Amino acid sequence: MAQNTRESSIFAPMTGKIVDLSEVPDDTFSKKMMGDGVAIIPKDGMLYSPISGIVSMVAATKHAIGFQTNTGLNILVHVGLEAHEVTDKTTIVHVKQGQKVQAGDLVAEYDLGAFEEKAINTITPVILINEEEEDTEIKANVGDVEAGAGEIFKVVEIIKETASADGEQGKPADNDKANAEPAAAVAKDGNEATAGRSTIDDLKNESLEFFSDSTNWIKLGAMFVGLVVVLVIIFVAIGVFLNLGGEG
């Protein structure tokens, strides 16, 4: 089985300084738990699309926006660290999930002054979300960069080719993915919805949005405490019942 490579450029979503992910003071990003990439220390709050493709996810609190390239790569831009409350109240988002974008299109406007007032770190990780089925490599750049123009990293994919029955090389296994834009379908409410993404991609985006929202952690904690209280009441009731039965 032969192998070819395909390179995709990911452009700067913000103007600023490119740094290594290891400089992000959050293990989720510095240890590449979600994927590889770089981080940007932004000079301003203007966020542009780093790719040509679609907007795959917009977090409810607007602190994270996901993108999918025309070849199926999933890129996440996470603006600041623990910035949910500030971004939710001060961010202007110009796109919606499923919308087509070109690299360099204005996506959102963040108020970095509000970040500073709350002493929130503005460092912005830009990562390629882990895809277990993909064999990819990141070639990252460092230094100053202009939004929408400078390349922050290149994704190198290994494209496997299958051999035909007569011994000739076949087309790349993911040829359809390489040459076709993500399919789109019109939902019942009239909005465009992406039909080309897999269920796994949807679950990843939904999970990312859910766990990135700090209020969801509070809700989960409250549910856990409530469950514990209910179990304690049940065990106490059973104990009282058994004691009464033994006395009788």
Structure, described:
The chain is of the alpha+beta class. The model is unreliable at 173-199 (pLDDT under 50). The strands form four sheets. The chain has an eight-stranded antiparallel sheet with strand order 9-5-6-7-11-3-2-13. Strands 1, 12, 14 and 15 form a four-stranded antiparallel sheet that branches. The chain has a three-stranded antiparallel sheet with strand order 4-10-8, with no helix packed on it. Strand 14 and strand 15 (169-172) form a beta hairpin. The protein is built from six helices and 17 strands. It has two domains: 3-197, Glucose Permease (Domain IIA), CATH 2.70.70.10; 213-248.
Task: Explain the layout of strands and helices.
Blueprint: E1 3-11, E2 16-20, H1 27-30, E3 35-42, E4 46-48, E5 53-58, E6 64-69, E7 74-78, H2 84-90, E8 92-93, E9 100-101, E10 106-109, H3 112-117, E11 124-129, E12 136-140, E13 143-145, E14 151-163, E15 169-172, H4 175-179, E16 184-186, E17 192-194, H5 199-212, H6 214-247
Antiparallel strand pairs: 1-14, 2-3, 2-13, 3-11, 4-10, 5-6, 5-9, 6-7, 7-11, 8-10, 12-14, 14-15, 16-17
Q: Tell me what the CATH architecture of the largest domain is.
A: Distorted Sandwich
Domain count:
2
Question: What's the N-to-C terminus distance?
Answer: 79 Å
Give me the CATH fold name of the largest domain: Glucose Permease (Domain IIA)
In spatial order, strands of the major sheet run 9-5-6-7-11-3-2-13
Helix content: 25-40%
* Assembly status: single chain
Shape category: elongated
Main structural class: alpha+beta
